[in-house]
């Protein structure tokens, strides 16, 4: 056993065994059955399970390597793009070298969609896919863990308690990241823990400190240079989980906390992948370079590119306008005063209908989630912005 076995993705020689276990996993079969045929699963679960297993065996039965698994997954990614997006644009891949390993640090909006689209863009551009950093808080069911590890995910152990265990977990993650880059294996990791449910994309300096932990005796600038850090910006016109995020933020504001129901992360994953997103833009930035002396300086350099490359849509400005009309001062009012004169709206009925699906009490949080990217980008640039 190596020191990374408890967090690393599966190796090729483990794939067949894991696939066979998935085909026999009743929990997995029932989860898929309930998703595709909820009524039948309630009345004839054994029959639905039989057909789900037979279908999966046709899809997975011959898979014997991680690459073969990802080839199978790529067809689903293609279908998701074609059926849930009106446009998928990705930029910046042309400047990447196929024989280099990169540490892609991205803003985080969707549990699985962000990294899937990074992988899909790289796959289409004939680059190798990434190892995906995933918090161990998402490990709720064995089948979900298996699928993630088959798809080159590795786990950041965030659930450890006690200073020594927390430090050991962070050091292990840092060492694994450095080893991966040394092996020319690229990695994708979110710029901060968890999704940005408020629409504010900001890099947590603690993530940068974790990167540097394995090389803590070396100058930070040297560590940053050897990691080949690339900022990545992803923007969804519509967030399939917007109401769920608004509900959670409203509960935290009014009650002080939010008790997430069991299975909500899986529900968010399914909604995020399977429901309508409109236009989606993905931008790979330029490698971070500089004589950095602190984690905060690196985080600021990441933020500048992530925000600059973030694509704003008309719904972002529409949400900003509504909040500015509710407020007589503050960031939404001030940003609209600075930018509103340049914004021309077409039909906004689609946005109104979408907002009406969210409970009235949560709508302020819903609007903030869409408006905050405009405020964040404006504060970063303090210059004229034009919606598309």
Structure, described:
There is one protein chain. This protein is an alpha/beta fold and 388 residues long. The chain has two domains: 66-308, Glycerol-3-phosphate (1)-acyltransferase, CATH 3.40.1130; 314-381, no CATH class. Helices cover 54% and strands 10% of the residues. It has 17 helices and seven strands. It has a seven-stranded mixed sheet with strand order 1-7-6-2-5-3-4, sandwiched between helices. Helix 7 links the parallel strand 3 (131-135) and strand 4 (153-156). Helix 9 crosses helix 13 (295-308) and helix 14 packs across helix 17. The longest helix is centred in the middle third of the chain and has 20 residues, at 163-182. The protein is globular, with a radius of gyration of 22 Å.
Tally of individual domains: 2
Radius of gyration using CA atoms only: 22 Å
The class by helix and strand makeup works out as: alpha/beta
The biggest beta sheet reads:
7 strands, mixed
> Segments where pLDDT lies below 50 for 5+ residues?
383-388
User: What is the CATH C level class of the largest domain, in words?
Assistant: Alpha Beta
Regarding quaternary structure, what we see is single chain
Morphology: globular
CATH architecture of the largest domain: 3-Layer(aba) Sandwich
The number of distinct β-strands equals 7
Termini separation (Å)?
52 Å
> What's the CATH topology name of the largest domain?
Glycerol-3-phosphate (1)-acyltransferase
- Summarize the amount of helix as a percent range: 40-55%
Widest beta sheet: strand line-up? 1-7-6-2-5-3-4
Give the topology string: H per helix, E per strand.
HHHHHEEHEHEHEHHEHHEHHHHH
Strand content: 5-15%
Number of helices, counting only DSSP H or I runs of 4 residues or more: 17
């Amino acid at each position: 056993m190596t020191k990374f076995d408890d967090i690393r993705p599966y190796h090729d020689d483990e794939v067949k065994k894991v696939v066979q276990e998935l085909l026999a996993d009743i929990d997995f079969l029932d989860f898929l059955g309930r998703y595709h045929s909820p009524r039948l699963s309630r009345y004839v679960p054994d029959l639905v399970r039989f057909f789900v297993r037979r279908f999966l065996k046709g899809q997975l039965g011959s898979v014997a390597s991680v690459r073969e698994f990802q080839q199978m997954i790529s067809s689903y990614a293609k279908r998701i793009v074609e059926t849930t997006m009106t446009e998928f644009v990705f930029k910046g891949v042309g400047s990447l070298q196929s024989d280099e390993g990169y540490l892609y640090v991205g803003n985080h909006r969707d549990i699985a969609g962000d990294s899937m689209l990074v992988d899909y863009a790289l796959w289409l551009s004939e680059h190798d896919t990434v190892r995906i950093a995933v918090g161990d808080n998402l490990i709720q069911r064995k089948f979900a863990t298996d699928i993630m590890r088959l798809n080159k995910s590795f786990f950041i152990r965030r659930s450890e308690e006690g200073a020594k265990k927390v430090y050991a977990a962070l050091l292990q993650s840092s060492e694994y990241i450095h080893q991966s880059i040394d092996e020319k294996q690229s990695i994708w990791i979110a710029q901060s823990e968890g999704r940005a449910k408020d629409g504010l994309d900001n890099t947590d300096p603690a993530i940068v400190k974790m990167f540097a932990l394995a090389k803590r005796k070396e100058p930070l600038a040297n560590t940053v240079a050897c990691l080949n850090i690339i900022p990545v910006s992803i923007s969804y016109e519509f967030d399939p989980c917007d109401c769920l995020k608004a509900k959670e933020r409203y509960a935290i504001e009014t009650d002080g906390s939010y008790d997430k129901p069991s299975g909500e992360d899986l529900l968010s994953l399914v909604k995020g992948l399977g429901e309508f997103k409109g236009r989606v833009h993905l931008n790979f930035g330029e490698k971070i370079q500089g004589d950095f002396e602190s984690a905060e300086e690196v985080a600021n350099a990441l933020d500048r590119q992530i925000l600059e490359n973030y694509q704003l849509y008309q719904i972002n400005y529409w949400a900003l306008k509504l909040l500015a009309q509710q407020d007589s001062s503050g960031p939404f009012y001030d940003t609209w005063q600075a930018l509103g004169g340049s914004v021309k709206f077409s039909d906004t009925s689609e946005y109104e209908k979408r907002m009406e699906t969210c409970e009235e009490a949560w709508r302020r949080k819903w609007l903030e989630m869409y408006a905050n990217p405009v405020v964040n980008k404006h504060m970063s640039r303090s210059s004229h912005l034009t919606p598309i």
